[in-house]
Amino acid sequence: MHVGFAWLGAAVLLAAGEAAGGELFMLMLAGGALGGSAAAFLGAPVWGQALAFALVSLILVVGVRPIVRRRMLSALPEHDTNTAALTGRGGTVVEAIGSSGGLVEIAGDTWTARPLIEGETFEAGDKVLVHQIEGATAIVVRGL
């Protein structure tokens, strides 16, 4: 068996190992193993194959990996989570809201609520918009 096939096997195993990590490091080493395989098929001695593996891996890890990671991370959409995701959402008043509070249903959950504007009141069934969330209380304004 030609030693180039051993390098190819190493490249496949490293690429498969990348699935567990996801940091692109093992994938870059797999590229280095492909470089070692190419050197082997071109007739380079073992030290030349190892040198090709090291150089290609180094170039990929230092030069290519940061660019690819930056590109992958910038492609991820940013979404508000938790209470920040509720800001701007509509709700329905469940229990009249006044200065002493009340209840509103937002996205299927019931929240304590109070009006943004002091003295404003909302009756059960009124539509409101979430202005912000303070602790476990929704600060609401009149909805559309």
TrEMBL record:
<dbReference type="GO" id="GO:0005886">
    <property type="term" value="C:plasma membrane"/>
</dbReference>
<protein>
    <recommendedName>
        <fullName>NfeD-like C-terminal domain-containing protein</fullName>
    </recommendedName>
</protein>
<keyword id="KW-1133">Transmembrane helix</keyword>
<dbReference type="Pfam" id="PF01957">
    <property type="entry name" value="NfeD"/>
</dbReference>
<keyword id="KW-0472">Membrane</keyword>
<feature type="transmembrane region" description="Helical">
    <location>
        <begin position="38"/>
        <end position="64"/>
    </location>
</feature>
<dbReference type="InterPro" id="IPR052165">
    <property type="entry name" value="Membrane_assoc_protease"/>
</dbReference>
<keyword id="KW-0812">Transmembrane</keyword>
<dbReference type="InterPro" id="IPR002810">
    <property type="entry name" value="NfeD-like_C"/>
</dbReference>
<feature type="domain" description="NfeD-like C-terminal">
    <location>
        <begin position="84"/>
        <end position="141"/>
    </location>
</feature>
<dbReference type="InterPro" id="IPR012340">
    <property type="entry name" value="NA-bd_OB-fold"/>
</dbReference>
